[in-house]
Design goal:
Layout (H helix, E strand, L loop, with lengths): L128 H9 L4 H12 L10 H4 L7 H17 L6 H15 L7 H19 L1 H7 L2 H8 L5 H14 L9 H8 L10 H15 L10 H16 L9 H7 L7 H11 L2
Helix pairs in contact: 1-13, 4-5, 4-6, 5-6, 6-7, 6-8, 6-9, 8-9, 10-11, 10-12, 11-12, 12-14
Length: about 375
């Protein structure tokens, strides 16, 4: 049986000229009336039925002013609330519209003000120069910071007992032993090049621990273990990342001596921070010296030299057990007083009104601490 071959290109031939495509599958004459194309000029309406089939009530044409009809009803059958408004009708609006540009009142023009006179920076004779200088140099938070430091240094939890060697340690540790231990701690700080202020915090930790806990053994090994651990804790508080790169418990144990171990250093560190109640950031004399010498005073010879000497005197006062009975701010003020007395010219007083206002102490308040620090300053 022969199979007829169908040419696939027969269905792709172009239509003959004059042929028009239609979506109707049947000739136009065979289509129903509702599917025949509209005659020329015919306008579509929303009615689904031919116009001839509409009822008479719905054939009423709206007047020219209306232009549309609602819901395919005659105008007379539309309720009054649905009927379109008459010409010229304006719908009320509840929104408050802004006034038109012509209704906005224009403020009257005033003449330009004259430039204010220049403010004089000179200080009169009756005005204190210290007050003006402090207002210009101090920041907005400096007074609050100073008040917080003064309140913290007076806290009983931050202060060691000034007589703990006799009352707590029962004279098993003498002031001379304490001074030798602090000198050994100073060498430890300098050898490892720790940051400034580490020694002051370390000595404060030692005094506070010995004020609440009596030593079972008063040997040099125990004192060195206590002092080296205090330096290690203070250095981590002051500069943690760099300290860990320089020191670790093994190095601390090696510096103490061959008989010291890593475990002893870690155990002493745990007991120390527990005795301190984890309060490690109290202010020291080094803190107040840095604050009180931040700005130069009138008539000073060299602020850097005065600051360096005041820090040295404050460091030397750590070995003096008698200075333990004074607040760190008093010790710092006394060190600055001695440094100004030694370095300033003879016509510049060692303690001015500005320094009294800055520190909160006059010379009479510093008399006792100055007397205790005279041997340290060799004056």
């Amino acid at each position: 049986m022969m199979q007829h071959t169908v040419n696939p290109w027969a269905f792709a031939r172009p239509p003959p000229p004059g042929f028009g495509f239609s979506f109707a599958r049947q000739p136009v004459a065979d289509l129903p009336a509702r599917r025949r194309p509209p005659p020329p000029g015919f306008e579509f309406s929303y009615a689904r039925q031919p116009v001839a089939d509409l009822p008479a009530a719905r054939l009423q044409t709206p007047p020219p002013s209306i232009g549309f009809f609602c819901d395919q009803l005659a105008v007379d059958d539309v309720p009054a609330r649905v009927r379109p408004p008459p010409p010229g009708f304006s719908r009320p609006c509840n929104k408050v519209l802004p006034p038109s540009p012509c209704e906005i009142p224009v403020p009257p023009k005033h003449p330009k003000r004259a430039a204010p006179p220049p403010v004089s920076t000179a200080v009169s004779e009756n005005e204190k120069p210290s007050t003006t200088k402090r207002q210009r140099l101090c920041s907005d938070y400096e007074d609050d910071i100073d008040a917080n430091l003064r309140r913290t240094e007076r806290s009983p939890e931050e202060r060691p007992r000034p007589d703990y060697l006799k009352t707590v340690q029962q004279d098993r540790v003498t002031p001379s032993d304490r001074a030798h231990m602090i000198e050994w701690m100073d060498e430890f700080v300098r050898q490892h090049e720790l940051v400034d202020g580490t020694l002051h915090h370390a000595v404060a930790y030692v005094d506070r621990v010995l004020s609440v806990r009596a030593m079972r053994k008063h040997t040099d090994h125990e004192l060195h273990l206590l002092g080296a651990t205090a330096v290690f804790v203070a250095a981590k508080y002051e500069d943690g990342q760099r300290t860990l790169a320089k020191l670790d418990p093994d190095k601390v144990a090696w510096y103490i001596g061959r008989i010291a171990t890593r475990k002893e250093v870690l155990d002493m560190e745990r007991r120390m921070v527990a005795a301190l109640r984890y309060q490690l950031g109290g202010p020291t004399a080094h803190t107040f010296v840095s604050r009180f010498t931040k700005h130069p005073q009138e008539g000073e010879e060299d602020l850097k030299k005065i600051q360096r000497m005041a820090h040295h005197l404050a460091d030397e006062s750590l070995r003096n057990y008698a200075c333990l009975g004074y607040l760190p701010s008093v010790v710092a003020s006394s060190a600055i007083f001695l440094a100004r007395s030694a370095l300033n010219p003879p016509d510049v007083p060692a303690w001015s009104t500005e320094m009294q206002e800055l520190t909160g102490y006059d010379v009479m308040n510093l008399a006792g601490c100055l007397h205790a620090m005279r041997p340290v300053a060799h004056l």
